[in-house]
Amino acid sequence: MSLLVSDLSFSYGSKTALDGVSFSVGRGQFAALLGPNGAGKSTLFSLLTRLFVTQGGAISIAGHDLKAAPLAAMADLGVVFQQTTLDLDLTVRQNLRYFAALHGISGRDADNRIDTALDRLGMAERAGEKARGLNGGHRRRTEIARALLHDPKVLLLDEPTVGLDAPTRAGLTRHIHDLCTETGVTVLWATHLTDEVLDTDQVILLHRGKVLADGQCGNLRNKRPLPDYFAQMTGAPA
Ligand SMILES: Nc1ncnc2c1ncn2[C@@H]1O[C@H](COP(=O)(O)OP(=O)(O)OP(=O)(O)O)[C@@H](O)[C@H]1O
User: Fold this and answer.
1) Beta carbons within 8 Å of 123's beta carbon, 6+ residues apart
2) Residue limits of the ABC transporter domain (predicted)?
């Protein structure tokens, strides 16, 4: 399994945010972490990215236990945070070069990786543009390209389409699905938007800190529209 989460729990003081969360995602799988506001998605991402320290349970990334082998685990992890983290005064290529350098990648190797990543995201022609001049969708693509530079085996995206219009959202969602198929990268995509999920995707339905359902979307929804299934399971509108 590329991503393994076992019996994970986390509390903010007396407030339980995650309660015995377990799931696994296989290589090249697109998994949607679906949950209404307050379900615990951001807390889970904070634990997966080591912003928070795990209180109970375990996380394994590409076979590396996050606690026992944090550097190896993080080397196989790419992350796209909800808030943009680009330097708007730098060009797309400069933003990516800076990140590559942080990973010890420089020179021709860095440039080759940057070209490949930008090409994959349909951003090759924008390499010389300042990030400030890009629209929201292209900024997101730049961040995804950046997250792929070090060839991670697992890519986490925390509500990556927030603030984007419908066609841009659809394009980005399609791109990431293609990426799974073409490169074998494993994706965990947090969202509360059911139209970003395909029937062949794995759905991990999180609600009030617990996994309510985990399976292939088509099987879970069983011919019902996904928003109906989501609403029935969580009591929240999709
Ligand atoms: N710093 C904090 N202190 C106390 N409770 C918190 C804190 N951060 C989150 N919570 C609570 O923990 C639970 C899970 O929150 P979390 O932000 O992980 O959910 P989420 O699914 O990411 O929601 P959203 O989509 O609104 O970000 C919620 O009940 C939330 O109110």
Assistant:
1) 92, 138, 141, 142, 145
2) 3-233
Q: What's the CATH code of the domain at 136? A: 1.20.1580.10
82: in domain: no
Residue 3 CA to ligand 1 centre (angstroms): 22
Same-domain status, 144 and 167: no
Name all residues whose Cβ lies below 6 A of ligand 1.
12, 15, 17, 35, 37-43
What are the tens digits of pLDDT across the range 151-197? 999 999 999 998 888 888 898 899 899 999 999 999 999 998 898 99
Residue 151 DSSP symbol: -
By alpha-carbon position, which residue is closest to atom 17 of ligand 1?
Answer: 42
Helical spans, DSSP H, in 40-106:
41-48, 70-75, 92-102
In terms of Cα–Cα distance, which of 81, 24, 32 is closest to 190? Answer: 32
**For residues 209 and 40, is the Cβ–Cβ distance under 8 A?**
yes
pTM for this model (two decimals): 0.93
Decide if 173 is inside a domain.
Answer: yes
Atom of ligand 1 nearest to the CA of 158: 22
Residue nearest atom 2 of ligand 1, based on CA coordinates: 12
Distance CA(42)–CA(107), nearest Å, equals 35
Measured from the Cβ of residue 135, the count of other Cβ atoms closer than 10 Å reads 11
